[in-house]
Amino acid sequence: MKFYRNAAIEELAEQRIAELEKILGKPVEPPIPLEHIAERLLGLDILWEEIEELPGELIYGGLRMEEKLIILNENRRALFEQKPGLERSTKGHEMGHWDLFGHNDQPGQLLMFEEDTRFVRRSTPTGDIRVMSALIKTPEGQELLRQIQKRADDPDEARAVNRYAAALSMPKRLITEEALKIDRRSWPPLYRLAERFEVSISALTVRLKQLNLLYIDDKKRLFESQEQATGQRSLF
Q1: Got the DSSP string for 1-22?
Q2: Coil, strand or helix: which one is 223?
Q3: Alpha-carbon distances, residue 4 vs 11, 12, 148, 206 (angstroms)
Q4: What is the spatial distance between Cα 76 and Cα 85, in angstroms, rounded to a whole number?
Q5: I need a labelling partner for 45 at 20 to 30 A (CA). Which of 38, 74, 92, 152 fits?
Q6: 105-150: per-residue pLDDT in tens?
Q7: Which uninterrupted H or E stretch holds 87?
Q8: pTM for this structure?
């Protein structure tokens, strides 16, 4: 499996954005049209299908590599509607698996919350699909976790795909420009910025922290950077 440094992932995402701008003939603006990148640059199609889930399991989607097909779980459509940014993040993760690891037989990576996760194979009406299963913290989910404990996911791959999805949905140049315009020490402007890029607030805060445009201390106080937080502490 390839190992990608963060700088290389950021460079690839920037390259995809530049390629899309060339096709469109104009600069892209948030929200980034991920579907155009998937279909016109990566040759990936997107399909909604019901994906088999076992008791205690939560699956958002997957990637059928041999068919270059992103599958979104029809059973979770309501959840996508309830959680802004979830559908786009799932697409971004699957696109990352293809763009970074598409020539390997790797399963699709899903956006996760805090559940335990493992690679599994599940069925859809048109064939099997390999996905990342989120195991909900229920007795059924924990039992399922014990049953598939030997299926180890790869932390380097998960890190790379997470970074790719963030860099594509929130390109460094664009998110930096927009973030510098707002008061990042207050939650309402951050929520509005998340809405502008059509990402979840958690995805936004992680991205801003990656770029040192936000720091949240152990008391949940917001600072515009880690240096600012350090400076504030040194005053007392």
Answers
A1: -----HHHHHHHHHHHHHHHHH
A2: strand
A3: 11, 10, 27, 19
A4: 14
A5: 152
A6: 443 333 333 344 445 555 566 655 556 555 555 565 455 445 444 3
A7: helix 86-101
A8: 0.79
The amino acid that residue 22 corresponds to is K
pLDDT digits (tens, 9 = 90+) for 18-62: 999 999 999 999 999 999 999 999 999 999 999 988 887 888 988
β-bridge partners, 118: 133
Cis bond leading into 188, ω under 30°?
no
Q: Which residues pair with 48 in a beta bridge?
A: 72
- Residue 156 to residues 13, 73, 78, 162, 199: CA-CA distances in angstroms? 17, 25, 31, 10, 23
CA distance linking residue 162 with residue 33, whole number of Å? 18
Residue 185 CA: distances (Å) to CA of 76, 191, 236: 34, 12, 19
Nearby residues of 119 by Cβ (< 8 Å), 6 or more positions away: 107, 130, 131, 132, 133, 151, 153
For residue 44, which amino acid is it?
A: L
Report the alpha-carbon distance of residue 100 to residue 96 in Å, rounded: 6
